[in-house]
Amino acid sequence: MNVPPPPGAERAGASPVLIGALAPLTPPGWVEAGRHLLAGLELAVRDVNDAGGIVGRPLALVVRDTAADPRRAAEAVDELARLGVAALAGEYHSVVARAAAARADALGLPFLCSSAVLDALTEQPTGWVARLAPAQSHGWRVYADFLLGEGHRRIAVATQPSVYWTSGTGILRDHLAPHGGTVVELDTRALTPAALCDALAGSGATALLLLVGHPEPAVPIVTAVRRDARLAGVMIGAPAGQPELAGWAQLLGEDGAAVPFLRYLPERFGPLGARVDAALREQLAGEPSFVAFEGYDTVAVLAELLRSQGADRGRIADSWPRVAVEGTRGPIRFRRTPGIGVWQWAWPPVQVADRDPADPARFRVRHRG
Question: Using an 8 Å Cβ cutoff, are 143 and 262 in contact?
Fold first, then answer.
């Protein structure tokens, strides 16, 4: 799927500057997140072109669906490189973004990762990859601070096999331990929702974190816990952000309220963020998630690099540490961060939010990082 240049550009002989865009647009990818990511990317491309494009040339996206498949993402990077894209943008799933980053690094193709948070986005430090989303170790420590502030010291985590979930469990355990906190793992491969409730009731945990996929098995687990009178006092949390998107509320209704999650939005928007928020609401016919703003900011950064450096891939990658852009969520600059091998915006704003039990369509901010 390509986003075409504005009408008349081809007749005028202006060839478009191409950006490759990766997003999960079909299952088993988280399609709703992919749709929001793509909406932000597309809106920013329209804004760039309405403002004159890239030194008179239109900007265009060449979109590829990753479907949450690392191999498919790597193949898409190869294809996009052959098509002549100046840079790569996007991706939501961390394990997929890691595969894309490895291939982009090998090919010498600049990749600005929009939304994946896994710290080890690349095996080795690289100058070809930068990231807008905060590293998992940063955001999930903010979430652990929220848990401690709410008085939770014994935490249960419902888990699935994944480097992302394993990393998150380790971050929580390491951050909670100095404060007397402990983490109990409940393996959803071995436990039905009913058996998980039994294990949770006997664990002494006051909070259950969903480190699992959505909608399966997250939705059945939430439903089972909410229906179990023994667990009435247990807080359910979802640090990976599942409750923000509308599909969560549609599937769970009131049961999906009061499930705190991480999102990367400021306390209030400035003029750019407010304008983009209004445009995204119209485009999505609903409230945009933080993922849509990550998409917009990705194109804003790449457009600035393309204006100043042209479409030369090496010059773009060399300029990560020098680019400065006013994004929808604040000023964006990249730097090297200990333990992270890519150029990193350190840090985007971080919130812990949930859906209000009195009105599940409304969000409450519970904690700020």
Answer: yes
